[in-house]
Design a protein that fits this description.
By secondary structure, the protein is mainly alpha-helical. The chain contains three helices and no strands. The protein is flat and about 30 Å long. The termini are close together. This is Stringent starvation protein A.
Length: about 40
């Protein structure tokens, strides 16, 4: 979302923490295309 200029409200902190946890997984990273990796 930050890549698209979208800022979540403070009430979405739990969602952001969950996303970070998932995005940091090796298996998730391996599933991304080169373009998707560049967005992060």
């Amino acid at each position: 979302l930050p890549h698209l200029g979208i800022k979540l409200p403070d009430s979405a902190k739990a969602v952001e923490r969950y996303a970070e946890k998932i995005f940091n997984r090796d298996t998730f990273q391996a599933s991304l295309s080169t373009a998707e990796r560049g967005m992060r």
